[in-house]
Write a structure and sequence with these properties.
This protein is of the alpha+beta class. It has four helices and twelve strands. The protein has a six-stranded antiparallel β-barrel. A hairpin with a 2-residue loop joins strand 6 and strand 7. The chain is globular. Bound molecules: S-adenosylmethionine (SAM).
């Protein structure tokens, strides 16, 4: 085979396209990107559902899955997909100002916008022909399309002496959180519907959801974040202390 035809073959392979159908959709308290933790299991009070769909909505596909405490969810970054990708990105773990190869990061702006998260499997239910995997610790936007689910297999997936590069350890979560009187009154109104709301807010905010370049800087801005159908307003009251100001239902 000549060099020319070898090159043509190669480029045909490179252009090959693959199509995958959605097998499930995520139901998540995170309704917008802002304040979603940057990896799974940093906020274990975040509970969500994997709603199986189409031909995958069949109990047989998940038979015996409850033997596993954790699952890999393979998904499409549907919320950023339209923005395309970049060879170099600025990971928040490097302060958001140093560029790194996209494939050396977990950035959403990848050549193929595919993500993978390990989540805890709490239970499986099937009601009125709808099979649902109940999960916690997710880092996924509401509506995220799932294209595959696999059991987490500790003997092979957990490599205890692995090198984690610039993300060797969990990010700091040492911001203290307090609720103003107004926020406490608001909380009591919503806590019947959302039983672990206070804990969820605390865990999310202790990650400091602001862009990385703002970390450890004084900041008097009032931020809003959306969890479920609620808007939560908060502000920094020191370098490492946040005050939750109020919680209101979005219309
Ligand atoms: N654990 C996954 C991984 O490593 O592939 C995701 C890591 S990525 C850094 C996590 C961020 O992706 C979250 O903080 C959130 O902002 C964003 N995200 C989550 N679900 C998304 C979606 N469906 N579309 C776009 N961005 C999403």
């Amino acid at each position: 085979m000549s060099q020319l035809s070898r090159n043509m073959e190669q480029s045909k392979e490179e252009q090959q396209r693959f199509q995958f159908a959605r097998i499930a959709t995520i139901e998540s308290p995170y309704k917008e990107k802002f304040a979603i933790p940057r990896q799974p299991n940093l906020v274990n009070a975040a509970k969500g559902k994997v709603i199986l769909c189409g031909l995958a909505n069949n109990e047989e596909l998940v038979r015996d899955i409850e033997q596993f405490s954790h699952l890999w969810l393979i998904f499409v970054f549907h919320g950023t997909q339209a923005q395309g990708w970049k060879p170099l990105v600025r990971p928040p773990r490097l302060g958001g100002n140093k560029k790194t190869g996209v494939l050396a990061t977990r950035s959403t702006f990848r050549p193929n916008p595919i993500g993978m998260s390990v989540v805890k499997l709490d239970k499986v239910t099937t009601e009125q022909k709808q099979t649902v995997l109940h999960i916690s610790g997710l880092d996924l936007l509401d509506g995220t399309p799932i294209i595959d689910i696999k059991p987490y297999v500790p003997y092979s997936d957990a490599i205890t002496d692995a090198q984690g590069g610039f993300a060797q350890t969990e990010p700091n979560a040492d911001v203290s959180i307090n609720f103003t009187d107004q926020a406490q009154t608001d909380l009591s109104q919503y806590q019947t519907k959302y039983s672990e709301l206070a804990l969820l807010i605390e865990q999310v905010l202790s990650q400091d959801p602001r862009p990385a370049y703002k970390h450890n800087k004084l900041d008097d801005k009032i931020y809003g974040m959306r969890l479920f159908d609620l808007n939560i307003q908060w502000t920094f009251t020191g370098l490492a202390s946040i005050s939750v100001l109020n919680i209101t239902r979005l219309t």
